[in-house]
Structures are given as C-alpha cells and as structure tokens.
Amino acid sequence: MAIYDPKSMKAEEFINDEEIRETLAYAEANKNNAALIDEILDKARPRKNGSGCTCSGLTHREASVLLACEIPEKIQRMYEIAEEIKLAFYGNRIVLFAPLYLSNYCVNGCLYCPYHLKNKHIARRKLTQDEVRAEVIALQDMGHKRLAIEAGEDPVNNPIEYILECIDTIYSVHHKNGDIRRVNVNIAATTVENFRKLKDAGIGTYILFQETYHKQSHLKLHPTGPKHDYDYHTEAMDRAMEGGIDDVGLGVLFGLELYKYEFAGLIMHAEHLEAVHGVGPHTISVPRVKRADDIDPDMFDNGIDDDTFTKIAACIRLAVPYTGMIVSTRESEAVRRRLLQVGISQVSGASRTSVGGYTEEERPHDTEQFDVSDQRTLDEVVRWLMETGHIPSFCTACYRAGRTGDRFMSLCKSGQILNCCHPNALMTLAEYLVDYAKPETQQLGWEMIHRELSRIPRDSVRRVAEENIAAIKSSNRRDFRF
Ligand code: SAM
User: Fold this and answer.
1) Is residue 17 part of a domain?
2) How far is the CA of 86 from the centre of ligand 1 (A)?
3) For ligand 1, which residues put their CB under 6 angstroms from it?
4) What is the pLDDT of residue 478?
5) What's the CA gap between 249 and 328, in Å, rounded?
6) Whose CA is nearest to atom 19 of ligand 1?
7) Residue 406 has what pLDDT?
8) Is the dihedral of CA 299, 301, 302, 304 positive or negative?
9) What is the pLDDT of residue 54?
10) Same domain for 404 and 392
11) Structural domain contains residue 3
12) What pLDDT is stored for residue 415 in this prediction?
C-alpha cells in the first residue's frame, strides 16, 4: 500500500488515494461542525502584516471540510473571505488572455475531447507559420498581449520543434502597436529536455490540466495513447520545474469524476509543488466539460451545477491564496460574473477554440474543441469588467522582469501590488484604450484610470505611471516593461 507523502516524487504517494478517501470521510463527518468550520474560516482570513498582508492558506483536509459544508451562512462567509483574499493579493485587476489553437491532430483517445484519434468527422488541421502569423495579427488587432497556445498530442504532426517554431513566430510578429508579450503553453506532458527547450523559447506558464486525479477513472477516460499513463501525466509539473519552468498551471476538468475527490487531489498537488519546489502553482484553472463534436457532456455522471461550481472556486481561493485563478469562455457571462466575486484573477476573452478560428469571419465549428458560452468581443469583455468594478489588465511585466516562481509569490505576499501591478495594469489599459477600444469603452476606461491612479500609494510610482500614460496618449511610447 502506497503511503501519503507530499514530498515524494511519485504520483501515487503525493496524490494518495487512501489519503483522499480519509479526507472525504473527515469532511463528511464535520460538514455541520460549526465550531470547526469557524476555526477554519478564521485561519483562511487575510491578515495585515506591516505594509502587506499574509494569508496562511488551508490544508487539503481543512479546505475539504469547507467544500462539504452545507450551512448557508458559513458558505456566504466563505464567499466574503474569498473576495477579501482576492482584493488583498491581486487587487481589483483581472488579467486578460486568449487561447491560440495550433493543431488538433492528436493520438490520444480521451473520451471527453473531440480531438480523440477515433473521431473521423472532425476536420484535422495544423497551422503553417504564415497562418500562425495571420492568427497573431488578428489577436493583436483585438488588443491581446498574452496567449495560451493549445495543441493536441501528436509526436509526428506536432513535435516539440513545431511548437517551438510557432512560439518564435508568435513573438516575432509586431503588427501596428501590437505585441504578444507572454506565451503560455498548454500541451501534453513531456520530457525534462523538452521542458528545458520551452523554457529557452521564453514561455510564461506551462499549463496542464490533470483532467482527473482519480487514477482508475483516468485510465478509463484515456483508454489509448500516451495520456493513458497516469503517473507520467501527474508527475509532469515536477519535470517542468526540473526543466527550469517555475510557473506552472494546474486544473481539473470538472464533470468527469466526483468533484470532492478532484478538489482534494488538486489541493494536494499544490501542496506537493510547494513542499518539493518551494513554490506552489502559478495558476489554477476551473474548466467544466462542455458539449463538443462527438461529445455529449451528459455521458459523464458527475456534472456540477453553478452553485457547487462557485463554492469550489471560493474554496480554492481560500486554500491557495497566492495562486492566480482562471476561468475561460467555456462559462457564460453570468457564471463568470459570479466567479469574479470569489477570487478569479484571469479570464479569456473573444476566444475561438478552433484551429485558424481568429482569421475566419464566422465562428467556425468544424475544428472547434468545445462550445464557447461567452461569445462577446474582447472590447465587450473589457467594458463589462470595468462596469463590474474590475480593472482589465494586459500586463505581462512580472514575467518580462523575471519575477516568476517564488519571486512573483513574494511580490504578492509583500503587499506591493498597489505600487507595482496596479500601475502596470493602468498603463496597459491605457495602451488598449488608445489602440483598440470603442469610444464608449474609451470613456469608461479613462474615467477608471484617473480614479485608480490616485490609489497608488507611493508618490514617485504614481508620477511615473502618469508620465507613461501621457506618453501613451501622445503616441510617444517608451518600453515600459509591462
Ligand atoms: N493536448 C493537451 C493535453 O493533453 O493536455 C492539452 C490541450 S487541450 C486543447 C486543453 C484542455 O481542453 C484539455 O486539457 C481538457 O481539459 C480540455 N477539454 C477537452 N475536451 C473538452 C470538452 N469537451 N469540454 C471542455 N474542455 C475540454
């Protein structure tokens, strides 16, 4: 029998099935234990610490008790604390990005994904470098600065050399004032050597969704192909870190397995990264299974409703306070609005989940990975964020200034966000307003910028931000490192 050990490098020991089962039993036994729940909620609260703030986070056992809790007032309190944590460490900024699908060739047999090898009616397509350039121009013309590249797993059609060439192409395109300043990568688990190549190519975060932490389900859901290997998939983040990538992004595809099991596994994975590498995940994504070509989400028994989904997001926020949280356009505007209140810090906008989708007039369905619920334009998303009190941010400064891994986490913990991320967000918003925004968005944006500039505590920082914004307005740009 495998033992539970967060420091172990073996998947079955750091995601230990027996420990998860005991955690779920403990959570079930304590779900109405109001005194214990209050104690856990109190532990999760952010606390002032000099000029900054600290938060202890929660263990997977504590967080699982909150997730199991059914007492309405306590759930409400969880939501309030989740928002407090978000505001303490990330402020009211929301970072924007878009996925870029490079290729849907795939040799895996994932039962929930339309790219699976046996799907013969989806059109297979892989972008040429000219097509990558055209997609990037279309994304730059919307105002995007940060991409997540996506590809199926296929060593022949999408070898690492192809991915690296695409990254080079993406960074080389500078259309009008456009620029992609951070490329995050969501490709299948790979070797340390390949992770080193990705690091050398200048990627931001390496993102890999675990899909499910339940080993037996994983084997059934991935019946064929390299992804069948649960251990290789689960240990990928350790190889990425060994290859020098210190920002990694976790995620579970909710709907495949019991959500309480997945949640405990996800928090244990974060604990493992912290225990072994000294830094937890940079981001956690919360995708839910969606309808897609050849895929009916009702085939899976574990779909979760919007209330449960919101509770999961809030509990993640409480458990890992310094980790960015991402919600994609898989979710509707209404769901995204709710999640923004419980800790989400990044959203995608105007996404096309098809290969070559950004250069098509109409939203193409023939190579789409899944149905997109939020189909608004980037400008509409930017305006909506401002209307709901958030600062849309296109900032990539941390990564460009080398503040990754634990250096980013210490910035987050030191409470310097208002002197650093906040002005950067305002400067990148100013760029967006001048270069891409519709008049109505511009008006709201400038009002927001003027209001928010006054919140920068340090005078010298505020002056620099004001000067830079004036330079952006006069089209006399410098390299502001954002
Ligand atoms: N091929 C890469 C891998 O194996 O991890 C990742 C790229 S894939 C384009 C990105 C993610 O889309 C997958 O990890 C999966 O979680 C998600 N996905 C697949 N099918 C989906 C569906 N029907 N609905 C929602 N998300 C889906």
Assistant:
1) yes
2) 27
3) 112-113, 150, 152-153, 186-188, 208-209, 211, 227, 253, 287, 289-290, 292, 295, 330, 369-370
4) 64
5) 14
6) 113
7) 78
8) positive
9) 87
10) yes
11) no
12) 64
Ligand 1, atom 18, lies closest to the CA of: 113
**Model confidence pLDDT, tens digit, residues 6-37:** 999 999 999 999 999 999 999 999 999 999 99
**2/170 Cα distance (integer angstroms):** 44
**Position 482 in a domain:** no
Give dist(CA 105, CA 19) in Å, integer. 37
Task: Pick the residue whose CA is nearest to atom 4 on ligand 1.
Answer: 188
Q: How many domains does the chain have?
A: 3
CA of 115 to the centre of ligand 1 (A): 9
Do 292 and 370 lie in a common domain?
A: yes
Q: Give pTM, 2 decimals.
A: 0.96
Whether residue 275 sits in one domain with residue 213: yes
Could you tell me the residue range of the domain that residue 31 belongs to? 11-87
344's tokens: 């989400």
The residue whose CA has the least distance to atom 25 of ligand 1 is 289
> Ligand 1 centre from 442 Cα, in Å?
35
Whole-angstrom distance, CA of residue 57 vs CA of residue 131: 44
So what's the pLDDT on residue 481?
A: 55
Atom of ligand 1 nearest to the CA of 253: 16
Nearest of 163, 170, 164, 206 to residue 186 by alpha carbon? 206
Whose CA is closest to atom 20 on ligand 1? Answer: 113
Low-confidence ranges of the chain (pLDDT < 50): none
For atom 13 of ligand 1, which residue has the closest CA?
Answer: 209
Predicted local confidence at residue 410, as pLDDT: 74
Would strands 93-103 and 146-151 be described as parallel, antiparallel, or unpaired? parallel
Verify that 82 and 177 share a domain, yes or no.
no
Q: Residue 132 in 3-state DSSP?
A: helix
- The whole-number pLDDT of residue 370 equals 80
Same domain (yes/no): 93, 74? no
191 and 46 in a common domain: no
Phi, psi of 177 (to 5 degrees): -90, 15
Residue of 154, 253, 326 to mutate, ligand 1, most atoms within 8 A of C-beta? 253
Mutation pick for ligand 1 pocket among 112, 206, 283 (CB with most ligand atoms within 8 Å)? 112
Q: Which residues contact 51 (CB under 8 A, 6 or more apart)?
A: 414, 415, 416
